[in-house]
Specification:
Layout: H1 13-26, H2 30-37, H3 42-50, H4 67-84, E1 100-102, E2 105-120, E3 123-130, E4 139-142, E5 146-153, E6 161-164, E7 188-194, E8 199-205, H5 209-212, E9 218-224, E10 236-243, E11 250-251, E12 262-264, E13 269-276, E14 282-286, E15 291-296, E16 299-307, E17 309-312, E18 317-323, E19 328-334, E20 341-342, E21 345-346, E22 350-355
Parallel strand pairs: 2-5, 4-9, 10-13, 12-22
Antiparallel strand pairs: 1-2, 2-3, 5-7, 6-8, 8-9, 10-11, 13-18, 14-17, 14-19, 15-16, 15-18, 19-22, 20-21
Helix pairs in contact: 1-2
The structure holds copper (II) ion (CU).
């Protein structure tokens, strides 16, 4: 069985939508009113437009389903989505990249190319990526390291790589026509600098960026401090990159139910590095346990502070600690609810913290 089957429970979306149209006309319940308020996804719009025109309520050949039957259909779709989680999909991003060492310089190779990326089960979309991954491979270095990054452009557009948050010399900042010429299709460019400030940073395209970052040219650039004594001791150190453009609402390049859960043993301490590569704010909300915010944009907070919902704005990075004290499977999602749930079930920016 393919994972796509989870999205096709016995009651199809199309059948549900058709009946939903009838129900909207025949029985103006609160659910029907809610359905009509929700923005239609393109596929839903297509389904709705290809459906035959709804007959007058009194002329309906088939009686509309009862309220209970409609609730059953809706619940079945929600249940199927949750049961599919964590759904296997092809491709995984943010894999730690090992550098090649050249006389003390850490050398990384980044190739920009187009791939088909499976965002959620069965949903394959064109993506522009670094080294075939979305997010791109994780670069993890130490403050003071010398790094060299070879970028090869196999895309049909020029591109550039910006090291977001890193206070590099200006000619390494990766902004076309301000600091360098764009890297043309088929061309290469080499960046080299001594890694300045520690913290959770990013690298991404800075050329036609609304499209290129939206399509997936992004990744985490994590700099460990030279003085490790001020780093919190954690059992799990994880990155959560938010995006909201070409591939819909995603966490690390995947939409629910293909998002990866965070799994911890009871008592473990988790560090989550949120990074927003999208164009909207995403208030990430953890159920069951609080988050302790320790850093913004790589800079330590004056004092750690606690919350359960944290706004992550475009370009921001927030580092938080979570003590996995409360056993169970806990929903962990963006709290702009249209980024996380529809009448068809949860999607997009939803994952879970599983405390064993
Ligand atoms: Cu959101």
């Amino acid at each position: 069985m393919s994972n796509a089957d989870h999205l096709n429970p016995p009651t199809s979306r199309r059948a549900f939508l058709r009946r939903g149209t009838l129900a909207t006309l025949a029985i103006p319940t609160s659910l029907a009113a809610l359905n009509s308020c929700l923005p239609a996804k393109p596929e839903e719009a297509r389904a709705a437009s290809s459906a035959p025109p709804a007959p007058e309520p009194h002329a309906a050949a088939v009686a509309p389903p009862t309220r209970a039957a409609r609730a059953e259909e809706m619940d079945a779709m929600h249940e199927a989505g949750v049961k599919a989680f964590p759904a296997k999909t092809e491709g995984k991003g943010n894999l730690l990249m090992s550098p090649r060492l050249d006389r003390g310089v850490k050398v990384y190779e980044l190739t920009c190319s187009e791939v088909q990326w499976e965002v959620s089960p069965g949903k394959r979309m064109a993506a522009w990526v670094y080294n075939g991954q979305l997010p791109g491979p994780q670069i993890r270095v130490r403050e003071g390291d010398r790094v060299r990054i070879h970028v090869k452009n196999e895309l049909p557009e020029s591109t550039c790589v910006h090291f977001h948050g890193l206070e590099v010399p200006v000619d390494q900042d990766g902004v076309p026509f301000i600091t360098q010429k764009p890297i043309k299709p088929g061309a290469s460019f080499t960046y080299e600098f001594t890694v300045p400030n520690a913290g959770s940073h990013m690298y991404h395209s800075h050329h036609n960026a609304a499209k290129q970052v939206g399509m997936g040219l992004l990744g985490a650039f994590i700099v460990e401090p030279k003085d490790k004594s001020r780093e919190p001791k954690v059992d799990i150190d994880t990155v959560m990159i938010l995006n909201d453009m070409a591939h819909g609402y995603t966490l690390n390049g995947k939409g629910f139910p293909a998002t990866e859960p965070l799994v911890a043993k009871r008592g473990q301490k988790i560090r989550i590095r949120f990074m927003n590569e999208g164009m909207q704010i995403h208030p990430m909300h953890l159920h069951g346990m609080h988050m302790t915010v320790i850093a913004k944009d790589g800079w330590d907070q004056p004092a750690p502070w606690k919350c359960d919902t944290l706004n992550i704005a475009p370009g921001e990075r927030w580092d938080v600690l979570v003590d996995a004290t409360n056993p169970g499977t806990w929903a962990f999602h963006c709290h702009i609810l249209t980024h996380a749930e529809s009448e068809h079930g949860m999607f997009g920016m939803v994952t879970a913290l599983i405390v064993q």
